[in-house]
Amino acid sequence: MKLPIYMDNHATTPVDPRVFEAMRPYLTNIFGNSASRNHSFGWEAEEATEKARKQVASLIGATSKEIVFTSGATESNNLALKGVAEMYAEKGNHIITAATEHKAILDTCKRLEKHGTRVTYLPVQQNGLVDLDQLRMAITDKTVLISIMHANNEIGVLQPIREIGKIAKERGVLLHTDGTQAAGKIPVSVLDDNIDLMSISAHKMYGPKGVGALYVRRRNPRVQLTAQMDGGGHERGMRSGTLNVPGIVGLGEACALAQAEMPAESKRLAFLRDKLKERLMNSLDEVYINGTLEHRLPNNLNISFAYVEGESLLMGINEIAVSSGSACTSATLEPSYVLKALGAGDDLAHSSIRFGLGRFNTEAEVDYVAGKVIEVVKKLRELSPLYEMFKEGIDLTKVQWTAH
Ligand SMILES: *Cc1c(COP(=O)(O)O)cnc(C)c1O
After folding, report:
1. Residue 76 CA: which ligand 1 atom is closest?
2. For residue 215, how far is its CA from the centre of ligand 1 (angstroms)?
3. Which is it for strands 94-98 and 118-122: parallel, antiparallel or unpaired?
4. Ligand 1 lined by 153 (C-beta under 6 Å)
5. Where are the domain boundaries for CATH 3.90.1150.10 in the chain?
6. Span 5-10+262-398: which CATH code?
7. From ligand 1's centre to the CA of 396, what distance in Å?
8. How far is CA 25 from CA 20, 30, 200, 202, 231, in A?
9. Which of the residues 3, 124, 201, 298 has the least number of beta carbons within 10 Å of its own beta carbon?
10. Looking at the predicted structure, is the pLDDT value of residue 404 above 60?
11. Which CATH architecture has domain 17-257?
């Protein structure tokens, strides 16, 4: 086993060597522009991007004409939200999303609000899921789009997308889902789930960075978008710009591998994740899992270790790459807005760690990580006066603190 250990696969994933091999010719001798219609260099490139388009479509049960290639999920989310808001402005100006969405959704909504769009940010329940009755109540005759992510990037919880799709369909509202963490990890069917738009990204599924796709439904209903990038009219006018041929080939191969290997891979990752969880919970008290375990990605574990600072824990396990629930913004440590939306107090949010298992993690690594985390949490708690008071049975909520 080699150190450091990478267990932060929600942030990004390494490129699968098979994906790299598929890309290699398109980074060297097959260099044509897929929009060049007059010679074999262009045809070869086009053939490669069309194969990838089929591979992406197949993973989510779409048809290849419904796939628009982009630079990643951030761009796909921007294109979906801004493109719909602009195209359907006459129909209405209201969008519904959730408080726990990725910043690429929330910040896009903030921008749209400056231009007159009204946005409802649904709260989530303590388990991390949106309340379907609240969703139903939020829909008005001005609602043009619901954007709810499929799988959350911090806590891995899976929103009830099929039920949300049913509600959207009944009410004649389009449904976009940020599927970045779900695609390639769990089965997704845009038809069964009534998804109209879906964002995906290659680098979250063992493909290269800087390439992704937006699924745009063509039938029942046919979704239209106002392009956000003007130029040569590529991607059926929805996204201009010369196609990133090697990146797209990599995305396609990553989708094909994920589709073929998903049943075995998700079983293996769920086994490893559960092993990690069991070991931590059996050896440590006062640990809390953030978000429902029942509806969750197989590779995610987000745990708070009470009486321990996440940042100190990260430093103690510095040969293990994971994320903490505190986002370092400028000089201050902000607790994660996702954990706060679940109702976690600041201290529990600050003491949380996100483990994101991936294709290349081994059982030996999981054993090592479990042992190391247990050791460091115990050590840190030995230094914690609060933990000592807790062990002595003092009710910390009733302690009168003196101010300094
Ligand atoms: C990573 C991520 C994004 C951003 O994707 P990029 O391809 O890096 O732009 C958006 N949404 C979710 C849920 C993500 O995990």
Report:
1. 9
2. 15
3. parallel
4. yes
5. 5-10+262-398
6. 3.90.1150.10
7. 39
8. 10, 6, 24, 18, 27
9. 3
10. no
11. 3-Layer(aba) Sandwich (3.40)
